């Protein structure tokens, strides 16, 4: 499953792990994506939605 919100298109952030030894390795921060059944214009549809959109009420379950 792709880590992208279907509502706000929020995707993963990229950066580096930086331990004490200063040896940088690549990593990514995925958004908290939940698969919910949302109602859009009367029909229900499964969507990948981030928890920020759920809390803000951009999606009605």
Automatic annotation (TrEMBL):
It comes from the Bacteria. GO terms for molecular function: structural constituent of ribosome. It holds the Pfam family Ribosomal_L28. Keywords: Ribonucleoprotein, Ribosomal protein. GO terms for cellular component: ribonucleoprotein complex; ribosome. One of its GO terms (biological process) is translation. Coiled coil: none annotated. SUPFAM superfamilies: L28p-like (SSF143800). Belongs to the bacterial ribosomal protein bL28 family. This is Large ribosomal subunit protein bL28. It comes from Propioniferax innocua.
